[in-house]
Amino acid sequence: MTVTVTGTVTVAPGEPVQRALDEAGPGARVELAEGVHPGAVWIRHPGVTLAGAGPGRTVLAPGPSGGLPADVPRLHDAGPEVVSGVTVHGPGVADVRVEGLAVRGFSGAGVYAHSAARVTVHDVAAEDNAVWGVYLRESAACRITACRAHGSRYAGAALSFCPLSDHLVEGNDLHGNAFGLFVDNSSGVRAVRNACHGNAIGMLLLNQVYEGEPPGGVTDCLVAGNDLHGNCLAAGAEPDGLGAAGPPISGVGLALIGTHRVAVVDNHIHGNHPSGESVMGAGFVLGSSKDWGGDDVLDTHVLWNRVHGNTPLDHQLGADLARQCFAANTAGKGDPPESPGWRR
């Protein structure tokens, strides 16, 4: 390891990344040099930046031991054998940044943050991590920007039970997962200018009550300027397959289920076709989650969206239309067939 006068620690491939993080302490910048760095890491100090030379040049991959020290927090709802590439967790952990590297092939998440604040994941490629790509849980003011995530059983990027605060998911390419982006009982999320393609569902915003989980809800979110296309995989069909914990979903671009006060603006939702059974039947879906302890969709603003070339329908509006606002949207075939604010 090399330490500069500015306090930056540079770690060469084969040198212990975890030791560098632990010894550098709060506020440190730990740079991983170009190459493959074996082993998972735990960021437990505030103000830390973990940076690589770029996702095509610096790779964090499982090491020969395959595990972490016993006191490292494990991925939520997973067994001790499940290991995430980067874990961000600890008392008072905030202002952490992970950037410029690929996190590849872990049995848990690529990047996992729990009970932290102001965590930024930027320019990270989360590739073929078994459960999640980037998974931020019960954390405030999260940022996921300019990342690429594919090959996860659940979401490429997910915010789960994150309280109402300023969360940003921007400029990401999310493909080949069950969900591109999953906003799971999280509020205040701005999902803008993302490309979600080749998943079972491009984006899912879900308000659903789970036994033993914190209070949920999805409120006050913005979904704008996203390209949601070609989401044709099938999830939820196989017990150990893609999206195994959920109902069957396939061929959906964007779904808002039980959400309140979400603005859906200037999105392009096109070419989404189911390849298997699905509880949703359109490129764009509004639906209730009352049967799972949630609520009806209320106070949605759907403006200037282009929804075309999806099968079997372009939109499926399972909501009280009087409690929503639709304007200047274009679509082909929908349910109901004629709705104010939609034209062909």
Report what the structure shows:
The chain has 344 residues and is mainly β. It folds into two domains: 1-143, Single-stranded right-handed beta-helix, Pectin lyase-like (Pectate Lyase C-like); 153-344, Pectate Lyase C-like, CATH 2.160.20.10. It has one helix and 36 strands. The chain has one helix at 17-24, and strands at 2-3, 8-11, 29-32, 35-38, 41-43, 49-51, 58-61, 86-88, 97-104, 109-114, 120-127, 132-137, 143-145, 148-150, 155-160, 167-170, 173-175, 179-184, 189-192, 195-197, 201-206, 219-224, 227-229, 234-235, 249-250, 252-257, 260-265, 268-270, 282-287, 301-303, 306-308, 313-317, 325-327, 329-331, 334-335, 342-343. The strands form three sheets. The chain has a 23-stranded mixed beta sheet that branches. Strands 5-8-10-12-15-18-21-26-29-32-35 form an eleven-stranded parallel beta sheet. It has a two-stranded antiparallel sheet with strand order 24-25. α1 (17-24) links the parallel β2 (8-11) and β3. The radius of gyration is 20 Å and the shape is elongated.
Low-confidence stretches: none
Strand-residue proportion? 35-45%
CATH level 4 superfamily of the largest domain: Single-stranded right-handed beta-helix, Pectin lyase-like
Give the overall pLDDT as a whole number: 94
- CATH third-tier fold name of the largest domain: Pectate Lyase C-like
Helical residues, percent: under 10%
Q: Overall 3D geometry?
A: elongated
CATH architecture of the largest domain: 3 Solenoid
What top-tier CATH class of the largest domain fits best? Mainly Beta
**Largest sheet properties:** 23 strands, mixed
Number of strands: 36
Q: N-to-C terminal Cα separation, in Å? A: 61 Å
**Structural class based on helices, strands and sheet pairing:** mainly beta
